[in-house]
Write the structure tokens for this entry.
Amino acid sequence: MSETLLERPVEAADEGVGCAGSRRQLRDSAAAAGQGETLARYAADYPLGPHDQPQSMCPAFGSLRVGLRMRRTATVLSGSACCVYGLTFTSHFYGARRSVGYVPFNSETLVTGKLFEDIRDAVFQLADPALYDTIVVTNLCVPTASGVPLKLLPKEINGVRVIGIDVPGFGVPTHAEAKDVLAGAMLRYARTEVEAGPVQAPRGGRTELPTIALLGETFPADPVAIGTLLEPLGLAAGPSVPTREWRELYGALDCVAVAALHPFYTASLREFEAAGRPAIASAPVGREGTADWLDAVAATCGVPGSRRDAAKNRFLPAIAGVLAGAPIKARVTLSGYEGSELLVARLLMECGADVRYVGTACAATPWSAPDRAWLEARGVHVQYRASLEQDYAALDEFRPDIAIGTTPVVQKAKSRATPALYFTNLISARPLMGLAGAGALSQVINAALGNRERFLEMQAFFGDTGSGDAAGVWHQAPQAAPAGFREQMRRKREKQLAKRNVEDAI
Ligand code: SF4
């Protein structure tokens, strides 16, 4: 591979500016305000570097969405109005259909501690057991940096559980990992309830078979497909975490093992471990992925070899048949921030795609290690904590026939007449596991590849119109800036950056 941005470190983890200011300053303020322990835990759970902040949405969206998807759960945000506006807008864009509570503040209520009292009052007003099982209160960047002590909220009011979490953009790198912050806090609460005595039974009663809990937000058909794979092993699919209601947390903890389908749920896995439940890495994608996963499940759960082999004989030829009937003949680069990127890449390769680059905004964990090893053994460049610049560099380096990525990557690819697909909306929203996953992916990829001619026609028709400096709507033909202007601006930006770094270091 040539010397490209792929090898170049981007930005030291402690430097740079988040949307609420210098990340280092915010971290220092939060530590001084008594949040050092929380930040140290996040740093261990969600390791950074060389690039710590993906160029994506506010991380708190992940935990917000987990709460909004749960029945009988109230959600309250504490943060700057602009952050709350953005988060609620995005939630409703994604069909939340639920109110998001907000406790506003000003500099006086923030520094005098009145904000905490206001949050406490709001929680007491909301705590109606006829309406809610749980209230989730989330500190965004500014209240976290100021040390608003959510841990001092009552743990329960009128039988309604109260969970306070800090989800600052300067401590939790991605929205994926923010899902884990809330899921982990809920599992911990539920585990202490289980340890204290009898808890509510699952809706519809317990299954007779031992279960494998599923960790990760998957397409609705995936848990069904996994249940089918587990049945010949004498096992059943347990609840998916993040759950849709509180009592499913008990059901999840009641498993014999947990499948870390998405590999970034570090805090949640800690709770399963504390409950004595071992974790299984990777997921049943494609023929080889399914074979490896069935082996891992059987080994973890003590399933006899004869049952394991019977399951493999039943499913693997069928999956191989579907894969052979749905080939993908294309060079692909892939990037995203959902955490399932390595699994998708494995499935693409089993469909015959020539995958060259996989970028994920999430960190390396033991739960994606088998997928990384499988991909790297086949020459794929796997980039954890990938930056947008690295994703762009992959487009330059590998010249894919199709790029799967985040919004800006897709835009860049399409502007070069390269077919492209949004990872989150078009790839994540499809089955991946077992038989169903084998066919679904190639359908969407092959349809997109068919757009190549149309893109080329459009490119030939429009030429350079509206590109570069001339992009946008102009009343007059855009004029090029005077000679030397770009160089002057570049020097100015460099000076500003150097000044800010010096200020941060002081
Ligand atoms: S909460 Fe933090 S990361 Fe999120 S939008 Fe506000 S300042 Fe940015």
The longest strand covers residues 160-166.
